[in-house]
Amino acid sequence: MKKELITLTINREQYDVVVEDNELLSNVIHDTIGMTGTKYGCGTGECGACTVLVNGEPVLACITLAKAVQGAEIVTIEGVAPEPGKLDPIQEAFVEQAAIQCGFCTPGMILVAKDLLIRNPKPTEDEIRDAIRGNICRCTGYTSIVKAIQDAADSGLCCRSKP
Ligand code: FES
Ligand code: FES
């Protein structure tokens, strides 16, 4: 398989990585770069565990070629906090609501919520449920997850700009 050196911009840092032609973004982020917050669940674009933001839009990294996102701004769960040692208001709300059980779905949920609250700072419950419809929580903690996103919106602290 042909290999190529590419540069990815992740969480405002540049990474030079050698990738195969068909190498997936999830693999590069998780295995090559070592940002293990991006999870690999189904591998077929159905569970949302691998969600990252690419130019501010949620993207499923398990069905995205790494080569295809050169030059884009990629944000993983490691990049949503405003500064080291602090949490994003959505992360804080997830902690307060205990909206985390095994935590496997949590990075994807938070990144999808980030996108939602930037587009729609005051979503209804139905709009929140619609936004996370592509993200599966195998622990079925949806009630707490929806409440956490609603709390983050209600705090007014959240998501005035893209991370
Ligand atoms: S691992 Fe990407 S959608 Fe499931
Ligand atoms: S907390 Fe376990 S999959 Fe959602």
Describe the overall structure:
With 163 residues, the chain is α+β, with helices and mostly antiparallel strands. The chain folds into two domains: 77 residues, Beta-grasp domain (Ubiquitin-like (UB roll), Roll), CATH 3.10.20; 67 residues, [2Fe-2S]-binding domain (DNA polymerase, domain 1, Orthogonal Bundle), CATH 1.10.150. Helices cover 32% and strands 17% of the residues. It has a five-stranded mixed beta sheet, with helices on both faces. The protein is globular. It starts with a strand and ends in an 8-residue tail after the last helix. The site of one FE2/S2 (inorganic) cluster has 11 residues, from loops. This is Carbon-monoxide dehydrogenase small subunit.
What shape does the CA trace take?
globular
> At the third CATH level, what is the topology name of the largest domain?
Ubiquitin-like (UB roll)
Q: List each distinct ligand once.
A: FE2/S2 (inorganic) cluster
**Main sheet: strand order:** 2-1-5-3-4
Q: What is the number of domains?
A: 2
CATH H level, superfamily name of the largest domain: Beta-grasp domain
Low confidence ranges? none
Query: How does the helix and strand content classify structurally?
Result: alpha+beta
Summarize the amount of helix as a percent range.
25-40%
**Major sheet details:** 5 strands, mixed
Strand content: 15-25%
Structural topology:
Blueprint: E1 3-10, E2 13-20, H1 25-33, E3 51-54, E4 57-60, E5 73-75, H2 89-96, H3 106-119, H4 125-131, H5 142-155
Parallel strand pairs: 1-5
Antiparallel strand pairs: 1-2, 3-4, 3-5
The protein binds FE2/S2 (inorganic) cluster (2 copies).
The site of one FE2/S2 (inorganic) cluster has 11 residues, from loops.
